[in-house]
Known about the structure:
elongated, alpha/beta, 8-stranded antiparallel sheet
Amino acid sequence: MDTRNFYAGEEFFAQLMLGASITNEGVRFRTFAPAAERVELVLEDELVPMSKVADGNFWEANVAGAHAGQAYEYRIWHGGSYVDHADPYAFQSELRPAHRSVVADLSFEWHDAEWMSSRTDCHNRPMSVYELHLGSWRKRSGDEPSDDPADWYTYAELAEVLPKYLVGLGATHVEFLPLNEHPFDGSWGYQPTGFFAPTSRYGTPTQLMALIDALHAAGIGCIIDFVPVHFATDAWGLADYDGTPLFEYPNDAVGVSEWGSRNFMHSRGETCSFLQSAANFWLGAYHFDGIRLDAISRIIYWQGDEARGINGMATDFVKTFNNGLRSLNPGCFTVAEDSTSLAGCTKPVEQGGLGFDYKWDMGWMHDTLELFQTGLEYRRDGYHKLTFSMAYFGNERYLLPFSHDEVVHGKATIAQKMAASEVEDKLAQARTLYLYMFAHPGKKLNFMGWEVAQLREWDERREQDWFLRDYPAHDAFFRFACELGAIYRNEPALWEMDYDERGFEWVESSDEEDVTYAFLRKDEKGSRVLCAFNLSGKPVKKTLSIEGASAATLLLNTDWQRYGGSTPNDSDSELACGKAGLTLTMPACSGKLVRMLGERAS
């Protein structure tokens, strides 16, 4: 590590100098604590003095015979008293509620060289992300609430079942809610204490590597949530690490977040180097393909408040972060959970942007859910909630999210939000909603449980309601989800030109009375897929004029009986295009995907 880069906020490998490094003789322990009066290593039950090294801001102890698996912490003295802290750069931690760091051997034999050499940022590739909280996807206790660590499946056990499941669902990527070490289960990892340590809830670092290796072998990309804004306040963590606010702001007005956690001070180069090195470590050591940054609005604006203005030092950090990670990890990508309207989130840094590859389209998510929550008789009044996003989809590289945030805290699940009183009607609308999502320009993200149309809000103490597949309506919905995923992956028109205005064309966008919509998705070779929707409560027959089309093949009808609808399976699979155009009969609250055949006029 170059200490000049470390202080300048330009370092991406700080863990090579700091933390616990296994050597031929034992273990070298090193920490950055410039304001400390004295630092001692607490290794198991042994107290080892540490000495100042380098410029005097670093403390070191070399312990012969120390080895992987030993627990340790640093006793940091300041003002005549001490606090025992976990190592900020530790690669492993004890299982909560214990919190000491653990010396880790990260030796692992990878088998994904072909994947790593050919991976891509997916700008012109399909991306259907399955967002997953690892501790509640499946639990040994089933759907009974439990906080018992014995009920969690391990990384190794999930490597046996998760890749195959995601392939069957048609997902291209899995996004894990933060796997960094964290003390409180209910924070889901968003209030971290160990930024380099995968949570020990589910096993060891090398077991996590084996899970990623298995996912890559199955053709599934891996994304990890990363928290660059704030950290947990536990006294043994990062807060007041050397007796002073080392990582955080000294002023509570900007130093304490709305969640009660401590905000990182991005104007300190040491803090930026810490965060950049942690992110680079997940991409490098663990072979993650993408990294999603949480709460970016709090980086762009002071405390996330636009009225306070842009936080220039924090946005500079993001620019360095994005450029550095892509340079060091070819084919990787970064994603911003950005709810602001600031332009240029996915614009290259060299062109004045923030340099992210993707931005969550929160406006699309709110508008879409609001219309589907509206009673059928009132939808004509909100008709253009589904046309508005088409006016701006090319402004950024958007990712369309129905994330964990939309299925907790009294919000109801996605299927439950649908404006209907009967379950079958809710599921019919949910099928149409998801078809619209997969047809819309942009990449996709759905939270676990969507594929069975879960009707219970997410609870991290319980596994998803997999028993729903015992009910025909939900099992049919699962079949729909799998077939939709397969069609999406196999139709380049649905993803190849996501961010090119030539890849989208309206066919019907003004039918407020019948609440119908139709548009074409196109690929580079000229193939076209018609996406048609009826969001009213009555059947509608539509004749659509599509230039150059001589015939059509029906790819999917959300109302097919095998999905839980009433239309015979695969009926009208071959559709004729007359002189007037293509005529479609659309059942109430339904959608269709149609592959258009014939030469497209130039």
